[in-house]
């Protein structure tokens, strides 16, 4: 587990494709990847209470995509197919799919 100073400064961001709602957990067929992501986010919030975790949908928060120059460039060059993009403290750590919990925790630990 990260120490208190790391917990307050760690920021995990998910830059996501258009979905039916902010979580993607509604509709007639729920995407299991989004269910797992939601579970992983809840686990991370419990383990790292100071961590900031944000999800941005390109159709609802397009300016957030511009605020991260790497994310903006990736979307500009590769289109929405590159989504989802995950960034940890502004650094892109995964594109085209969500990282699993173990992968995310390794990146948080700096491994």
Automatic annotation (TrEMBL):
It comes from Anaeroselena agilis. This is Arsenite efflux transporter metallochaperone ArsD. The gene is arsD. It comes from the Bacteria. Pfam families: ArsD. Gene3D superfamilies: Glutaredoxin (3.40.30.10).
């Amino acid at each position: 587990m990260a120490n208190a100073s790391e917990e307050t400064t760690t920021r995990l961001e998910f830059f996501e494709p258009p979905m039916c709602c902010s979580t993607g957990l509604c509709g007639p067929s729920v995407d299991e990847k989004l269910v797992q992501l939601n579970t992983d986010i809840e686990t991370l919030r419990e383990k790292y209470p100071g961590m900031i975790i944000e999800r941005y949908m390109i159709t609802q928060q397009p300016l957030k995509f511009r605020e991260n120059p790497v994310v903006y460039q990736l979307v500009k060059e590769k289109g929405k197919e590159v989504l989802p993009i995950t960034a940890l403290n502004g650094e892109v750590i995964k594109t085209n799919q969500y990282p699993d919990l173990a992968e995310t925790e390794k990146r948080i630990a700096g491994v």
